[in-house]
Amino acid sequence: MIAEPNAACNLPSHKENAVRDETVPECTVQNNSSVRNGNLKTSREKRKVREQCENIRRNSSSSRRVSQLQNGEVVEAVTLFEVVSMGKRAMQCVVDDWVEAYKQDRNVALLDLINFFIQCSGCQGVVTAEMFQNSHQQDANRIHSNKMDVMQKMTETFDEETGLQYKKFIAYPWILTVTWPVDVSNEDYPVIRAGPYWKKFKANFCEFIAVLVQQCQCSILFDSYLMDTIISLLTGLADSVIRAFRHTSTLAAMKLLTAVISVHLNLDVNKHNAQRLYEVEKNRISGKKTNYRLDQLERKRKEYDQKLVEIQNMMHAIFKGMFLSRYRDVVPEIRATCIEEIGNWIKTYPDVFLNDSYLKYIGWMLYDKQAEVRLKCLLGLQGIYSRKELVSKMDLFTSRFKDRIVSMPLDKDHEVAVQAMKLLMLMSQNCEDVLSAEDCETLYQFVYTTHRPLAVAAGEFLYKRLLSHEGGEEVLCKGEKKVGAKTDQLKRLIRFFLDSELHKHVAYLIDSLWDWAGKFLKDWECMTTLLLKDGEGDGKVLNDDQESVLIEIILATVREAAEGHPPVGRGAAKKYSTDAQKVANLLQIPQYYDLDVYNTGHLEKHLDALLSEIKGIVAKHSDLSVLEASSRTYYILCSEKIAIYSKVDCARTQLIDELMGQLNQLLDGFWQKEEGFCTDAGEISRMHSALRRIAAFHNAHDLTKWNLYDKTLKLLQFEMEHGSLSVLVILPALQCTYFSLLWQLAAAAENSAKKTLLALRRELRRFSEICMYFLHHKDKDVREKAFTILCDWLLILSHQDSNNNEEAVGLLDYLPSTSLQEKLLFFIQEHVFVEEEEGSKGLTEEEERKDKSCKFDNLHKKRSLLAAYCKLIVYNVVEMTAAAEIYKHYVKTYNDFGDIIKETLSRTRHNNKIQSAKTLILCLQQLFQTYAESQDSSTGADLSSASFTNMKELARRFSLTFGWDQLKSRESVAMIHKEGIEFAFQGATGTDGKCLPPNLSFLLIISEFSNKLLKPDKRVVYDYLQRYVVEPLPCSRDKWQPLILYRNSLLANEDEESSILGSSGEWPPVGTSKALPFKRKLSNGSLPETSHTEAASQEAALERASQLTSAGGRSRKRLKSQEKHLKERLPLRCPGGLQRRRSKDEIKTEDVSVKGQAEDTSEDVDIDVVGAEQDN
Predict the structure, then answer these.
(1) Local structure of residue 942 (DSSP, 8 states)
(2) What PANTHER family does the database record attribute to this sequence (predicted)?
(3) What are the pLDDT digits (tens) for 1118-1129?
(4) Residue 710 and residue 674 share a domain
(5) Would you say residue 685 has pLDDT above 70?
(6) 661 and 541, same structural domain?
(7) pLDDT for 269-291, tens place per residue?
(8) Separation in Å, CA 83 to CA 58, 73, 111, 113, 488
(9) Rounded to a whole number, what is the distance in angstroms from the first to the last CA of the chain?
(10) Which is higher by pLDDT, 840 or 1039?
(11) How far apart are CA 785 and CA 730, in angstroms?
């Protein structure tokens, strides 16, 4: 049986496993019959069986497929190794999928698991598997004979002719043969590789094993097949001379035993509970012969006993087969792994492991030559000695290895020395009299060491063992000569310093104690009291030496409190240059310096030190916040107005030269390769870091003279042609290209020849096309970056400053085409307003925290994308009608994007009130059409459905955005009603209104805006509504209910309401209306203009309407005060198209005040509201 192909060997990594299919799993044949490579005589037979194997593999693994960009290509994960290494899914889901596959066909699933462990070892070779038993009919003697023959052939050999290494071993029930090319110098494999990607892989690898055991503990863990195979596989790999096999299998086995111990603990609890229930039930039914409940509990108890025996056998097999042979391995990482896990076993299951049989291994490894192993021993012992209930069982271990532990603060490795001191602190607290006075005296002296962390740990030991006084509060009383506890502490401290005779400076002692005894050392009142105390009374005063030391203590504590830095020799112990967040904040401090002081105060050496430190930080960090802070600091220091400009500019140029040199070297190696971009993760990481640093500086500094644009543009074009570039390179390359063009655009806008402008124009168009291409890239991050850059790019190009060079603006101006606008809108719909799957059920607390953090980050990205697109709408780069698709999600996504959508609506209304209103009604019309198409035409619209209710709620929210000032919004609201009425009666004119309009229910939607109409405008809208109503109504009144409700919303609080609608429900004729009718100028001329006679009669109606509106109320007085203006002009304008900025007029806005300017006359419709003059 052959392992499945390793499609993950091309992950963004170093060299990876290439495990390919050579034969077929036996599981492809029913009843587990064996199919061997030698049984396939012809290539046709081999191909046929291989296809069967592939089909089974795809079926068994389809549920856990994920995809990831890999060197520019999307790789579909099929095997366990690919899924775990990508880390895109929750580990529990991955394990559940595998368990399900195991239940369907355990041989196929186990082969996938075997491949997983082989591939995790970094094996670049072929795995061949065959069944140990050829037939189920073999007798016991034959099986035993075969097994002995196979055991004799368990070899690991090297074929000099082919240069291949062979390893053959048993992973019951298979015989595995691993073949791989020998590379003696290559000791690089996944679990030891550096970098965040491989650290995450190692964590995923360990998590997978733990979750696998956890999910199988109630089912297949005890089938006597799964664990036997895994243990035999790991044992076989651990015996290899290949370091990668030993290390990976040992790590897996140790994590496996840790997980099995957890299962053992759970079984112990369940068994105890079952035993208690059994005893309770037995006492309850005493006297009865049989009881079903009692029998059930008895069977359950026996089942737990049997499972515990099996678990113990697994534990013993792993410990004896793996730990005992590997804890002394020549590789220190393997030894450290073993010691770290045995420490966890002792803490987790002390009833079994907390005895000298297991503790001795930790004690022995305290003498290991490698600091990493010694450190793991100390950390494991800290976990044990920190628990008092465990210390009582450590007597023999403590007496045997105490001297070794006491000597370890002298270890040459600083971290080992620090952890040894902390362990001794725990032993001192929890073990009575374990440390002698001589031991303590030796440990006290470490407060004078130059390594500050060790000195601080020794300071804690000194303070808690010698100086601290439980319940020690000052007990000095007035007129008494008693000494308080703090005075005793001071005297003990002075006595210790004088007795040690190891140091002449108190400052080092104070610095060691400062973190633990800061409050005590700041009690200067107590110190001065003791210093000024005379010798009267009992004579407990300080001698000259003690007074001198006390004075030094006072001085040292004051200096430590004021300056806050350690004494000479310990100053370099605490650095922040490795903490990205802290460094980013610290780098902002120089931005507020008085930079002239560097020159006037002759502080050039400090400036050189600052520039040198920043340069080192840039070389060390790749975090974006740190790089941007460094770039900003250089920008502030490079101001041409200050005297230090030349020196800082020289340092900046030198830094950029070095960064560009690194990039050029990497690019030269890239272009020289015949097969395209190298898949080596190290080269990808280095190029990513170089481009990331340059992009951060290019944002604030003009790097045009380094010709960066051509280099990054060539990379992007390479990706467009071949599609094999890593995402880590594409993202910063896009950013660098964008910044390069921005600097060229800024320079061209000042003064450039026409030829230069035309060349730049071609580059601008080319970059726009590149961004459009990357909108459809396979990787989501690339798509989002391209969209954000494209939105900002279009905004800049369409709103250039024409004050300096109008010719440049004319040539470089660029507005998106209709197709591009559609692509941008489609991108927002696909990436922002898409519902995410809820997969947070069954997660642990840590997983839920990570899931929430991931969702928060995704929401932040979506908000950024939506804000970038909405800016295009607000600044008239794309048509305002595109906002209709955004507004549809206002209510549904209010918590996430409500503020962005609301601000967009407000800005567009300020730009063009009428067009903004038409966009709102267009949004509602589109939603209504979608709703109507989903309804059954025979039953009509369901006005109580959730969809219709949501539309009404959206209309209500739109209405609330108009605010309280009805005069400012009267034109917009009137336009909404006009467009809504026309839409509602579409489809009824063809039959002379004799049938019910299909969109009549839309009147209920626009009725939400009726309360925003002024009272005179309500009557005007009502009269406009009358034009579409035919009397008498052809249908029953119930079917016209939306019309009646809408009419009521327009005539609310009208005194004549009852007189207009009679008991028969008929509408009065249009000619009897008291309100002023609309004047319509339609292209089809279906409605005539108002005649002079009608105008005269309507003027009288206007006066009556004006008198009604002016009766009472402050708002009515305001309306009457503007009556003269309303008579002159108050049309609602409907521009034919959105006007976008040309030349200097970027955005045309309308005056929101009553004294508005004349509107553009090229509209479809003019609506003269009450008070407007009639045209002659």
Answers:
(1) -
(2) COHESIN SUBUNIT SA, STROMAL ANTIGEN
(3) 333 343 333 333
(4) yes
(5) yes
(6) no
(7) 888 888 888 888 777 776 666 67
(8) 14, 16, 15, 12, 64
(9) 97
(10) 1039
(11) 10
611 and 493 in a common domain: no
Look at residue 400 and tell me whether its pLDDT is greater than 90. Answer: yes
Bond prior to 1032 in cis (omega within 30° of 0) = yes
| pLDDT value of position 731 | 92
The set of residues, in sequence order, having a beta carbon less than 8 Å from that of 532 and lying 6+ positions away, is none
Residue that terminates a domain, selected from 579, 598, 629:
579
What is the DSSP code (8-state) at residue 9?
A: G
Q: Is the pTM of this model over 0.70?
A: no
Q: Bridge-partner residues for 792, per DSSP?
A: none
Check whether 430 has a pLDDT greater than 70: yes
Tell me the pLDDT tens digit for each residue of 70-112: 444 444 446 777 788 777 667 888 888 888 888 888 888 888 8
CA distance 884 to 602: 63
Pairwise CA distance, residues 417 & 1016, whole Å:
89
What is the residue-wise DSSP string for 685-747? HHHHHHHHHHHHHHTTS--GGGTHHHHHHHHHHHHHHH----HHHHHHHHHHHHHHHHHHHHH
45: in domain: no
Q: At residue 664, does pLDDT exceed 80? A: yes
1104 secondary structure, DSSP code: H
d(CA 571, CA 235): 50
Q: Who's near 1104: CB < 8 A, 6+ residues apart?
A: 1074
3-state secondary structure of 802: coil
Residues 6+ apart with CB under 8 A from 1131: 971, 1159, 1166, 1167, 1168, 1169, 1172
pLDDT tens-digit readout, 941-967: 677 788 888 888 999 998 888 888 888
Please name the helix (run of DSSP H) or strand (run of DSSP E) that holds residue 1001, with its range, or none: none
What are the strands, taking DSSP E only, across 838-906? none
**Average pLDDT value over all residues in the chain:** 74
Q: Which two tokens stand for residue 921?
A: 């009604």
Considering the domain architecture, whether residues 551 and 610 belong to the same structural domain is answered as no
- CB-count burial class (<10 Å; 0-12, 13-18, 19+) for 471: exposed
Q: What does the DSSP 8-state code read for residue 320?
A: I
Q: 3-class DSSP state for residue 559? A: helix
- Considering only CA atoms, which of 1105, 1009, 1023, 1107 is closest in space to residue 1071? 1023
Residues 493 and 615 in one domain: no
Judge whether residue 412 has pLDDT over 60.
yes
Closest CA to 731 of 742, 743, 715: 715
Parent domain of 467: 452-579
C-alpha angle 10-16-22 in degrees, rounded to nearest 5: 90
- State the angle between helix axes of 544-563 and 506-521 in degrees (0 to 180), rounded to the nearest 10: 70
Domain assignment of residue 1145, yes or no: no
Give the pLDDT band (50/70/90) at residue 810.
low
Residues 970 and 1048 in one domain: yes
657 and 571 both lie in a single domain: no
Phi, psi at residue 20, to the nearest 5°? -120, 160
Number of structural domains found in the chain: 3
Query: Strand, helix or coil at 945?
Result: coil
Domain contains 976: yes
Least Cα distance to 921 among 1001, 1009, 833 occurs for 1009
3-state secondary structure of 1145: strand
Pairwise CA distance, residues 1034 & 478, whole Å: 107
Residue 214 forms part of a structural domain: no
CA–CA distance, 570 with 579 (Å, rounded to integer): 19
Residues 634 and 515 in one domain: no
Q: How far apart are CA 1033 and CA 736, in angstroms?
A: 69
Considering only 101-110, 533-542, 1094-1103, which range has the smallest mean pLDDT? Answer: 1094-1103
- The residue behind tokens 């190794």 is 81
At residue 845, the pLDDT reads 76
Q: Last residue of a domain, which of 1052, 1080, 1095? A: 1052
Place 175 in a pLDDT band, splitting at 50, 70 and 90. confident
Q: Determine the Cα–Cα distance for residues 578 and 71; give it in Å rounded to an integer.
A: 30
